[in-house]
Each structure stands twice: as C-alpha cells, then as structure tokens.
C-alpha cells in the first residue's frame, strides 16, 4: 500500500485503520467457553449463579426461550417482547448482602414508540398479594437503571434505591459486556471494561418486611398481586447471554477485562523498527489504530507493518472488513488534499477440526467385596485422551481425493461429563466421588448428582486425564447390583468439538455365583452318584465340603467300578470254561462204561437192514434234541448272575449225568 501526493509538501499525515467485526460472535472473535469456564479461566471468584444456562433436564427453565447458538457455539437468547423465564427457587441466591455482582452480555436497540416502556432484564418481585420490586435491572429510553430496595431489617432510613446511566452503547444494536458491582450504597457500572458512574441516583424508603415469597424472572417482571390474574409485564426486546449473579463479592477490573477481551485485533509487526517520529495508539479492544507522522515515506512504511492477529487456536471463520482512512495537512492549511477511504477484506479460513478420542478399558469386572473398600472402585484407571487433526501436504493439495496426514495436537478442554446410563444412582447406596485434592493447582471444578458427574473448566487434556482417572464409584450394597453402565464425553469450546462417547460397563462378580458355577462343572450325573467317606474328601481337598466331590474323586470311583466289572467278567468266563470241561469228561466216562462190556454180543440180521437207517435217524434225532436242551440251558445260565449260576448249574449237571447213564436203554435197536 502506497500513498502519493504528487510532490505536494505536507505538514501532517493521519491514517486510521478500523477492523469491523460486529458480525462475528458477540462483537468480535472471543472465547466461546461456557460462562463458568471463562470465569474459572480468568480467576473470577467462585459461587456465581448462571441464570441463562443451556437448556437441559436440570436447567429446564430456559427451554421455552428462543436461542441463537449457531455462531461458534455461543449461547445467545433472543427476547422479542413476548418471552420470559421464571427462575426456580432452588437456583435463586438467597443472601444478597451489601456486596454482589451482576454481569451480562446485551445487544439492544431503540425502543419502539414515542413513550417507551420499561424493558426488564432481571427482576425480583413479590410472588403473590403485592407488587413490590426488591431489585431489578431494566432499560428505559436508552438508559440503564438498576433498582435496589433494602428491607427495614437492613436499614431504616432514606437510602439510595435507583441508579441511572445514559450511554450510547445501550441502544447501538451492538454487543457489549455489562458488569454492575454493588458495594452498597455505592454502585459501579463497567461496559466493555470501562468504568461509568451513574448520572442520577434517587433515594427511597426501605421495604416493610413481610412473609410473602419472591419470584426472580429474566426477560420480564412478574406481577403477582394487585391484579386479577398474575402475569408478566415490562418485557425485554433484545439479546442476552451469560447473565450471572455472584453474591458476597465484587469483580476486579482485571477479571472483567479478561472476561470480555477480544481474541482478534490489529497489531504492528516489528514495532522496534518503526520510525521514532511515528505516533500511534490503539483503542482498548485493539480494533482501531491511529497513526500520525510528518514524513510521507515513513507513514507508508508504518502502514505496511499493520497486521491482523487472532490468538484463538480455532478461530471463527469468515470475512473481517478493514476500513483505511487518511487525512493530510498542508503547511498553513487545515486540509489541502482529500484522500478517499479504502475498504479491504481479511479472510479467516476454517481451521482444521480436531478429533478428540477417548480410549481405555471398556469392561470392568470386580468382586462385590471391592466395592466396599474405603477407596471405592476406580472407573477410568487406564484412560487416555488424544486429539488429532488432518494436515494436508503438497501431495494432498494436488490430489484432493487423497486423505491427509493425521497429526496429534495439544489443546484445552472445557468439560468432561460422566453420565449414568439406565437408572439413576440410588443416593442411599451409590455415589460418584472425586477427591478435592485432585483439583488442586488446576482450573477445574466438579459438580455431582444422581445422574452423573460434571468436571468443567478450561484446562489441558493432560490435567483432565489425571482428574477423570480419580473418579471413583461407591456402592454400599453391591449384593443387589449386577452391572452399571457409564458414559464419558469431553468437549472443547463449549461443545463446538466433542469427543467420542466412551462407554464403560461395570460388572459385579458375586462369590455365590462362582461356587455354583464350579459345582455344575464337577457334579457327576445322577446315575453315577457315589458316596465317599467324609474323611477322604476332607483330607484330599480341605477347602471343599463333603457333599461336593472333586473331579479326582469321581475319576477314582469310576476306575474302581471298571475294575470290579472286569474281575466279575473274568470269573464268569473261567466258570463257563470249567463247566464245559466237566460236561465233556462226564460224556467220555459214560461212553467208556457202556462200550467196555466185553460180554455183550451183537447179532446182526441181514434181513433187517432196512430198519437200521430208521434207528440211526431216531438215534441222531434224540442226540440233537439232547444238544439243543443243553444249549438252551447254557444260554439261560449266561443271562443270570454268577451267584445264581453256581446254585442252578450244579443240579443240572447232576441231571445230565443221570441222563447220560441211561441212554443205552432207549437207543438200542434190535
């Protein structure tokens, strides 16, 4: 950029560079962490109450309000003159002493109509019967008014009650950060970190004490008495964000400046090389830079050193407009040359989105006794949190279809939530706990409930990792529990970047289940039940009771049974063989007795040859019948027990012997 005057001598050159960022976020690119996280990061006092939190199950009073959270995760509530919210009694700070702070972001324009009505941001009034306002913050005719009426129990004299400020920022339709520090009777207003004293203070009498409950509202004021039907009145028209009350303390100017500071602005490169004759100054937000000098060349060099900076790790993408205006003075004249303004644009590209990954043990099985230990059960012992981005190299730029390179980066987190899946924790039996010492030296805090635990604050991933590993689960009656499911998620920039959902399953291992499982494995079938002497089992396996045999005992019993069967079969085979030998001996003896009769004379009649075959056939038939009878007797004997065989076979052998001695009387043929 070059400024030329065609050789016209100049006595002074003034250049103004203005960065226009009103369309970005709340006036510029700021950190978009939650209000609590920002306060922790900036060192604000603890104990603040967020009156406009993100809608959820626990904070459902903002669910009906219109939100505009599409800008870089900023949580913005828009009020159109018909919406308001009642703050639950358990949320309202009960002890607003003489020292407290009210802070909010507000964007507001001129009120419609000639006689504008009051537009209430915050109001604490009687819930029923009467219509007294105890304290409220409202806008009236582009004036900001804070009302504070004390009770007679606190003061009993005429005291300041209304504080008025008339500022251009109230109706310029731009975002501004308002902080009201109350040190009664002194009240101080900060707008974008700049202090303003009230131009008007009116006094009033304290409010008479009563037993009427009060109702705190946002976006309007509640009128619960002196009318037929209670309703909202004095609706607000504009946008609000980060409305908080902190009782008992006031904020320092350093903390206020940190809470509203812009992360983008103008700067001068190589300030040490800037010519000493050039004078310059910035506005507090560093969005406007004014430079003055007498030498034209030095001014051209100085303007080239003006730069745009953004200190956010993940800046908001979009266009930033620059307007450069220059005025010159000639010798002896106020203005001799008119120089047109120049409009320029700075394009902020989308940053590489980080991918936050949580890894660790997903299943945890522990005996029931471990849940009763004083230290409880550590849920996330081996947890790891890693963040990666995709970087495009030269090859990727040439071939867009190819994936980039993954690179691990380090950045902050602003919260990690441990949620209980399924039924909520039973307060009398279960709890999630975190040792307070684990938060020391860190910008972290924690809240606990039956639905889980939330750890919040802007801090490094390593610090979050250390703290989450210290979360412990306690159960005073683990015998009634079989399993529990937990889910861990972490966030950066108030949910702009979220991690994967890491699920952990905790299973309780009961000792009774283990014993039953072992008994089923070693118990013999019903047809093999064997009773062992108790002394034998106790000697071999003292840890087992006598009613539950071990595997070794069952094997031994089965071996003995097999041996007994083998012995019985052997005895039976020997007995059968011996029986056959006895029969054979008897048969031989009978034959010898019959054929040794030397006195026997057989006379064969040739005329009776035809009868011999018939006799032979009859004799053979009788022998076959005798053999069949003997086979049937042996087969019948084999089907009986060995003891019965001994008792039955002996008479049969005697009978056979007698039968063998008398065969000659029946088989002889003459």
TrEMBL record:
Domain spans labelled Calsyntenin C-terminal: 272-611
Residues passing through the membrane, by range: 551-574
Biased segments, Acidic residues type: 609-647
Topological relation to the membrane, as annotated: Single-pass type I membrane protein
Major localisation: other
Basic and acidic residues bias (residue ranges): 661-670
Name used for this protein in its record: Calsyntenin 2
Subcellular location: Cell projection, Dendrite; Endomembrane system
Alphabetical list of Gene3D superfamilies matching this protein: 2.60.120.200
GO cellular component: cell surface; dendrite; endomembrane system; postsynaptic membrane
The keyword tRNA-binding belongs to this UniProt entry's keyword annotation: no
Taxonomy, superkingdom: Eukaryota
Biological process per Gene Ontology, one example term: positive regulation of synapse assembly
Region annotation Disordered: where it falls in the sequence: 605-670
Alphabetically ordered keywords of this record: Calcium, Cell adhesion, Cell projection, Glycoprotein, Membrane, Repeat, Signal, Transmembrane, Transmembrane helix
